[in-house]
Amino acid sequence: MARRYNIVLAGVGGQGLLTLGRVLGNAAILAGEDVTIAETHGLSQRGGSLIVQVRIGKGESPMIPKGAADLLIGLEALETARQIIYANQSTRIVMNKFLWPPPLADYPDIDNIINEIRSRNIRLYLVDANKISEEIVGTIISANMAILGYAYAVDEGLQEKISYEHLEKALEKIFKGKVLELNKKVLRKGYEEGLKHK
Amino acid sequence: MNIPRTDVLAPKGSKVLLMGNEAIARGALEAGICFASAYPGTPSTEIVETLATVAKDAGIYVEWSTNEKVAFEAAYAAAISHVKSLTAMKHVGVNVAADILMSAGYAGTNAGFVIVSADDPGQHSSQNEQDNRWYGLLSHIPVVEPSSPREAYMLIKEAYKLSEKYKQPVIFRSTTRISHTRQSILLEEDIPVEKTCKGKFERTIERWVLIPAHGKKLKKRMMTVWKNIMENEGHPPFVEIINPGNKKVIIADGIAYAHVAEALELMDKKNEYTIVKINLPVPLPYKPIVEALKDAEKALVVEELDPVIETQVKKILFENGVSVELHGKDLVPENGELDLDIVYRSISKFDIGTESVPWKPLEPLRLEPPIPPRPPVMCPGCPHRNSFYIVKVAANKARLKSPIFTGDIGCYTLGYQKPFETQMTSFEMGGSIGVAHGLSKVMDEPVVAVIGDSTFYHAGIPPSINIVYNKGKSMVLILDNYYTAMTGHQPHPGTGTTAMGEETYRVPMEDVMKSIGYETYVINPMNVKESINKVVEAFEKYKEGKPVAIVSRMKCALQALRDARRKGIKLPVYTILKDKCTGCMVCVNLLACPAIVVPKGAKKPVIIHDLCAGCGLCAQVCPFNAIVLKEKGDPNWLEAWY
Fold it and tell me: What is B20-71 written as a DSSP string?
């Protein structure tokens, strides 16, 4: 049995992590891969720390051991930093250049976070997913698709499992009409950005 | 929640990505149910939500009932009248329905009747992590438990067969990680077009009236069923011996099995172990246990939470004279949920005596200040924020001395946090009002029970009556945001629509409270000043010794934003004028709105405009009028909110 491909999606409730997970899941099915996606629902969704675990390949256990992520996609800097325990020395980390402080709390600066991750000698990719979304949609609502496109461009592991067309087809399963077209555009823009920094 | 309708209704042979709860719904539809009822509760909600979404296409009846007991009664009534039915609830919901659950064990059923209990190991969204497999032992109702969403889809159908075979209800136990994991599922069957939806009630009074004389006879039937299941159901899909004949055995049920299978695979020790895979943990069929353990040297029971299987295995070993080195909760934690990492460690301790794992996590980052915790918070525009602010200011104005706020179960439980602290207790559904009453009888401080709309209909009415009847001194504050919001905006008796999307009667809570005898005030918390005055008035009435209730009514912000988007209504957006803002931080410190942040190193807050819901609370609170409209909303923007 080939090892499963482990993707941790980290962010804040409301940033579209569940949708991101579903797109990856549908793309995996289209690629003929088995997949599990462990989601979080209910109260913890309300602006709290959120993690979604996607495992591509044969197997049933839905949770990724700490240190076993192949790819960590972080939609927010503090949450990426928090979930770094899922990464190991060879994990790719793709992080949105966006820090959203929790109310009434002191917090480290985003540059400190970036420097601290870099000091560990791991592959860190930074993308302004909010900006890509804003440029195309007018709001940050599609930052999730921007970072997905970017992560796909830089992560060969993911490319081995699913093709770009599968991602687009997966979007068609979830969105319709104008929203679908916009999300496809955002995905593409993120992907092109990623190719530049490969 | 966005239910993929077409996936749930897809024809036989389709491969679809379904969440465990959607898979359970699809399986139940294939089994031929025609009736489903539930009260929403994480992690169970999407089962009946899915059924409601497809009810009309599938030709079945689905409802959101006022609470789990009522939901259980309704579904059970259908089943004893020969209509296959389902009820679903979160683990603590079974506590609410426990009274009739026990009776249903005695009386049994006619058509298949399945109670889905979605447990929450790890307490992702619950007040406890009780293990509801115990309910099976308590009620003599068998428990079927899947190890994955895919298996949930298949096993729910087996649960209906088991129920019909023994004319006994079946508890189908899921957990958060089954219910909320998506998996690709190959659909085996179509949803039957022909099914029994018209019931037939047989007036077998000796079966349905549980007076002692009848109950004694029914218990004999129940115990016979119980023993028969233990004797005869020790075969797939309920119990399966995988790779028999090894000296080392692992017994695992539910999701624990999935972790065990992958751990052994990763250890490359699959061939050294016999696994007894359990999908019927209660009552545990003894034959396969004896079979797998009689020649074994040592065995490990891997199960999440309590030693429900371990206890039964020990009994089976004792009764059958089997001697084996048995491990369980000495190596597997009983607190929290299991995962691959934990199970891998437990097995390696069992196998070689030391814990070792093949993965090496990075050390946590060393940051100064450290990464702050991020608990869930009230959303931007959340009406609860307004209500809590208003009540606290009004309490000051009315000179209510150190009021006690008892709390309940809902998004508003987040009011326990600073700066509000308007939730000082939260035990169970409806508890705020009963607890407030008791406190008011033994304390002099004023007590305000704070309860949500759906929770009020669920279990808030009897304790409200109790306060008036027993001349209590506590007040009731009902936060009406139109929906059962926390679980995803299901309609409730105050909403005006049913689960199946039909218009229906509204049962306004202010009418309920008035009829009980409360002086009832209704406020619109978006109008802060006016609301403060009204609440002060209510507090004055309370001081005169009158029973007082306040209803605070404003739509859940998430739903208001969604409605605005759907109707194409532009909402206002606020901004902070840098030159007017003095950096007093009143907005930050009194409201804790996630849309208002203080950039690193800055002395003044800013509004993240993308997150602002336009409720305007901060503008009403700012002492320097420094918070103003950045963009005006459409003239009809309030339509999104009410």
Answer: HHHHHHHHHHHHT--EEEE---TTTHHHHHHHHHHHHHHT-EEEE-SSHHHH
pLDDT, position B356: 87
Indicate the SS3 state at residue B478: strand
Q: Is position B606 within any domain?
A: yes
Answer whether A76 touches B (CB < 8 Å): no
Instruction: List B405's β-bridge partners, or say none.
Output: B448
Question: DSSP of B134-153, one letter per residue?
Answer: HHHHHHT--EE--SSHHHHH
- Is B267 found in the same domain as B166? no
Residue B97 lies in a domain: yes
**Which chain A residues are closer than 8 Å to B486 by Cβ?**
42-43, 46
Q: Residue B321, exposed/middle/buried by CB under 10 A (0-12, 13-18, 19+)? A: exposed
Q: Which tokens is B509 given?
A: 């809570």
Report if residue B368 sits inside a domain: no
What is the pairing mode between strands B61-64 and B248-253? unpaired
Residues B589-622: tens digit of each pLDDT: 999 999 999 998 899 999 999 899 999 999 999 9
Task: Give Cα B128 to chain centroid, integer Å.
Answer: 11
**B101 in the same domain as B221:** yes
Cβ pair B448, B521 in contact under 8 A: no
Q: What ipTM was estimated for this complex? A: 0.95
Give the residue ranges of DSSP H helices in A97-142. Answer: 110-118, 129-137
State how far the alpha carbon of B566 is from the alpha carbons of A60, B254, B473, B526, B563, in Å. 38, 41, 44, 22, 5
Shared-domain flag, residues B160 and B26: yes
pLDDT digits (tens, 9 = 90+) for B550-596: 999 999 999 999 999 999 999 999 999 999 999 999 999 999 999 99
Paired strand residues for A124: A93
Distances (CA, A) of B563 to B274, B479, B559: 55, 20, 6
CA B225 – CA B235 distance, rounded (Å): 17
B57 contacts B8 by C-beta, under 8 angstroms: no
CATH number, domain of A150, equals 3.40.920.10
Confidence band of A2 (pLDDT split at 50, 70, 90)? low
Q: Per DSSP, which regions of B120-224 are E strands? A: 143-144, 170-175, 181-186
Scanning B167-211, the segments in alpha helix (DSSP H) are 176-179, 205-208
> Residue B95 belongs to what domain range?
5-232
Is A48's CB within 8 Å of B376's CB? Answer: yes
**Residue whose pair of structure tokens reads 């100064």 in the numeric block:** B368
Determine the Cα–Cα distance for residues B254 and B338; give it in Å rounded to an integer. 11
How many domains does chain A divide into? Answer: 1
How far apart CA A30 and CA A106 sit, in angstroms, is: 44
CATH of the domain at B319: 3.40.50.920
Mapped onto helix, strand or coil, the DSSP state of residue B465 is: helix
CB < 8 Å to A69, chain B:
none
- Of B521, B554, B587, the residue at which a domain comes to its end is B554
In a domain, B148, yes or no: yes
Q: Give the closest residue to B386 by CA, choosing from B533, B483, B523, B549.
A: B523
pLDDT tens digits for B135-182? Answer: 999 999 999 999 999 999 999 999 999 999 999 999 999 999 999 999
- Here the CATH number for the domain that contains residue B617 is 3.30.70.20
Between strands B447-452 and B404-406, the pairing is parallel
CA distance A22 to chain B (A): 8
For chain B, say whether A163 makes contact (Cβ under 8 Å): no
Per the structure, the complete domain to which residue A131 belongs is given by 5-101+110-196
Residues of B in contact with A65 (CB under 8 A): 339-341, 344, 357, 359
Assess whether B220 and B270 both reside in one domain.
Answer: no
